[in-house]
Amino acid sequence: MNIDDITLSLVSNTLRAWRGAEDLPAGLLALDVLRKGGSATEVERGIHLRDLIESLVITELQDQRASEHALNDALPTTRADLLQAVGMDFSRNNGELEAWSALYHRYLAPVPLSVEELATAAHLDVRNFRRRVNGGVERLTDRLQRLEMAEHNRVQQAQLGRHLPPPEYARLFGVDQHRRKLADLLRHENGPDFVSIEGMGGIGKTALARAVTSSLAENSNLDGIAWISARQTWFNDRGEIETTSDPATTLADIVSRLVTQLGYSELAGLNTQEKLDRLAAIFRSTRHLIVIDNLESISDVDILLPALMPLARPTRFLLTSRESMSRYPMVPCFRVPSLSFDDSRALVESELHRRGFNSTPSLEDMTALYELVGGAPLALKLVSSQMSRWPLAVLINDMRRASRSAPESLYTFIYRRTWMVLDDSARELLLSLLTIAPDGEDIHWLRVMSFLPPDAFDKALDQLLTYSLLQLAGLSDSLHYRLHRLTTTFLQTEILSTWQEADSGSNPEFTSE
Amino acid sequence: MGAILNSPVNDVIGAAYWADEKQRWTEFYRDRLTAQLRTAGDLVGDGSPERLQPHFDSFVSLLNTTIGQPDLADLWLDLVDRLHPLPVRWGQWSTWLAILRQASQKAYELYRPAQQAEYLSYTADLLLNTGQSEQALTAAREAMRLARQSGAAWPLGVAGNAAAATLRSMARYDEAQALIDEVRFALTHLPTPQPTARAAMTEALLDLEQMDLLRYFKRLDDALDLGERLIANLSAVEGIDPHDLAGAYLRRATITWVSGNYQVAVDDLKQAAALYRQAGDELQDDFRRSQSGTGLLQHVAIPGG
After folding, report:
1. Closest to B22 (Cβ–Cβ): which among A260, A438, A496?
2. Is the model's pTM score more than 0.90?
3. A246-286 confidence digits (pLDDT tens)
4. Phi, psi of A85 (to 5 degrees)
5. Chain B residues within 8 A of A240 when measuring between CB atoms
6. A374: CB partners within 8 A, 6+ apart
7. What is the mean pLDDT of residues A338-365?
8. Is the CB of A441 less than 8 angstroms away from the CB of B4?
9. Candidate from B9, B29, B54 with C-beta closest to A431
């Protein structure tokens, strides 16, 4: 509901309608704040509105009474007690208390009281008592406006955040400076239209993009956020499957999902270029942030970037990619550095603490671990999760051996080790997740598609979370689960034959840089 | 396993172990994909469109993952059959178009011309709705050919409707009329589609197109009579899809609008919008509501206006 439509007279008429047991004027039933309670019908909204207003007024009245040290736990329910309470309220020389008391007793008290008897109890003439009632209505109107405004903000934030992956890590290490820098860049009026976050797999590109996006969602006047995870395989426009998406297919898919995510479903029937033209027109007067995650899935961005360019300004694009966009001069590249030793150590300690372990790795072990895996957050998290099972010294020793024989397969080694500690149920669940949408799925879908009994499912899910094999996405009431791209690739190439046979052999995903 | 886990992995867990793991889990995964396809089909059968819509991308991912498995073709096509036409109503037109084309290809590989005709007819309809008239006409004609050959009435009706609509959109009204007559005649020689609602819609699809043609031939009264009969007939059919009935109201609205019966047109549009919403097609619902609003503004006396 428009805030300006919440007027004094509307609130006053609503209160009068209640007092006279008449039909409510429609106005306040349109309050967005009533939708939060799931009120669907007019009758339900009427009941919810009454509850809301009573609760507001009673809270204010009791707060004022408490400030005068005159609070009774229960509100009076008889005529005599109510009139006595009015007398007490008006004996304090407190304007706020008088206004809320006048409002409550005139319109909301359990026993109908005439203005004359209320004025008498308050030791005022009728005209002055009416003024106090009006003062109460003014205050109530103000509270309702603020509540509605807060609800609008809440909905806007929820809208902006609905496509964001949830924080990948319970706590992000070593990214504050990068986040600020990138957010400032994207917020700046004359900043670049495209920014690319780059780095090897598992270095934390998505987590950083998420942090930047959240920062912008909170502190920028964005009209919308779209978050699109580029797909690894897709149908092309001839209906054929492509193992590596061709640019035109990817552009069509990305634009199509952009249209859906931003709520412009009326553009669904247009072809890709028409959609782009219409979006460009819309984006001239609106400001969006478009995140395209895992852009390395796209074999040729030469078509993609120029096609998206007309949508930019004031809209901005944030890209994440394993491959550098440095050949595009208009795309400033931000290469995510490995975590420093101190940040790596803090991350490992935080992960151990999160899992209920109070011990911290020795400086010697931590140094050895850092030498082996570097400051890659995913690797550190995976190894930390294994430390609940093996001493770090044993893990380091094994990784050293693996690293010596095949340095490029360190991630494979780490994943294999994790795979070996999983129960079969957890392995089944993990493989069942290979077919979910790239942006994740909810727990109900996982449950159904895992075919596990409830207890086994809960245990399996817990194991996958414990070993950092699942990522959470979305808000708390709509959590989504998804796999990290590296985890997907491990399963596809190391656990299943299907994909390895199709691949040429080596797996660039696991090649260390 | 315990001994293995406490030992250095590289020394003990060799290639043989992982080869066995691969074999075991690849077999498991094949079964899992089968089960997931079957379950996804069941979910579509049991779920309301609103509950299914958020999972569209996962349905597509599952189809995407299993498309290359010949032994899963039946389940794959069954899932497509169950999902159609929901993705169209959700505005997922380009994605669904690609999947329908794949379905058509699969049906072709399995030597199932009737099924191929069905997917081609849906493809034609979607191509028409996305403004790709030439391609729509080609697909519709191929669908009609296959449908006739295989004696499949339903795809013949769908494709006939799409082809006639495409010809009409190209202002080739006489050809469109001839095509409708031809399809009607062909249908009389084909077995009645099952279930009853589908049989009713096969006829209705041609009537819908006929209404528009009558309009272009300036026979508005005949068009209105046909619309009246069509709505009455469809409303009486048990299990009719509200979306199909909405289409009939919408078509009648366009005729009554042209006839100058604006209030009736607005009422029909509102009825169509309500039915579209009931069928989970919010896009059409919004369109028709906005049209009815426009109608009210332009042609109906507004108090104080």
Report:
1. A496
2. no
3. 455 678 878 888 887 787 777 877 888 889 999 998 888 88
4. -65, -35
5. 102
6. A338
7. 87
8. no
9. B29
Indicate the pairing of strand A241-242 with strand A234-235.
Answer: antiparallel
**Which chain B residue has the Cα nearest residue A500?**
B22
Nearest to A373 by CA among A353, A402, A405: A402
> Which residues have CB under 8 Å from B294's CB, separation 6+?
none
| pLDDT tens column, B82-137 | 999 999 888 888 889 989 999 999 999 999 999 999 999 999 999 998 888 999 99
- Residue A320 phi/psi, 5-degree rounding, is -125, 140
Distance from CA of A241 to the nearest CA of B (A): 8
Asked if the model's pLDDT at residue A498 lies above 80, the reply is no
Q: Is B197 helix (H, G, I), strand (E, B) or coil?
A: helix
Please state, rounded to an integer, the average pLDDT across all residues of chain A: 82
CA distance B101 to A244: 19
87-106 of B, contacting A, C-beta below 8 A: 91-95, 97-102, 104-105
Q: What's the per-residue H, E or C state across A312-346?
A: CCCCEEEEEECCCCCCCCCCCEEECCCCCHHHHHH
* Higher-scoring residue by pLDDT: A476, B196: B196
Q: Please report which helix (H) or strand (E) contains residue A44, including its range.
A: helix A42-67
The span from the CA of B124 to the CA of B118, in Å, is: 10
Q: Which of residues 291-320 of A touch B (CB under 8 A)?
A: none
Are A397 and A362 in contact, with CB atoms under 8 Å apart?
no
Q: Is A57 exposed, middle or buried (0-12, 13-18, 19+ CB in 10 A)?
A: buried
CA distances from A389 to A275, A346, A429, A483, B232 (A): 53, 20, 21, 22, 71
Neighbours of B112 (CB within 10 A): 18
Given a contact cutoff of 8 angstroms between Cβ atoms, the answer to whether A443 and B54 are in contact is: no
Of A395, A414, A348, A418, nearest to A170 by C-alpha is A348
The segments of chain B whose pLDDT lies below 50 read 1-8, 10-12, 300-305
Nearest to B98 among A235, A448, A451 (CB): A235
Rounded to whole angstroms, how far apart are CA atoms B97 and B75? 19
